[in-house]
């Protein structure tokens, strides 16, 4: 037995002569937030469809809360938010959520739920008048019904403004806090960098990375950037530190994680010649580019 509520082992799927999933193994534990990254066509949507039981695998297996994808127990345990949510335009938000609540066998406080996702002022408006962001919020309210054990979120911040994006991740944190395993497929690297526990990267159907941000960074061995602001002569600071001047007063030094402290000691020894320093470890964008093997032109 495994403690993971979502367990994927050797998942493979062919589409004609094209292998869209190639022996993918991935797990999500209760309360864990995992970001699933990859270019368009990398296999993210295919994997989500397989977890939902919408397609069958050609190899491997998926276990959803101890059940087979698509079975009644698996459906009951899973909540899904697609990128393009769709609801009946003639229903109001309250009517749609009341219907979903009855279908799910949940006794939900619909008004409180819609208030939680920022739709308190639109409870009794027809969904056909909702903006894309409002429909996305309504979809998130559906995810919150029934305390799901697994939540699959496909580009969940699509159509949301910056404040709404922050609110959404607060709700994702709540789901995680109540033990829901959350898998987020996203292109919004900056968001998932700060709000997930683990990063999984697909490239052409192959899982090329699966680790914490720190673990990915350590394995990649990408350089740390030290950005110095010179008090006077930036060229002199660049010459003494082995860095390069990048504008009138700034110098950039690239060093490996093991060289960082030595570089900082050299900078400190320069005294007042250096007015300020910023330390920038590799960003998720850098790591994603590295593991997805996207070479900049």
From TrEMBL:
Keywords: ATP-binding, Nucleotide-binding, Transport. Pfam families: ABC_tran. The lineage of its organism: Bacteria, Pseudomonadati, Pseudomonadota, Alphaproteobacteria, Rhodobacterales. It comes from the Bacteria. Residues 6-229 form the ABC transporter domain. GO terms for molecular function: ATP binding; ATP hydrolysis activity. It comes from Antarcticimicrobium luteum. This is ABC transporter ATP-binding protein. The keyword Transport applies. The keyword Nucleotide-binding applies.
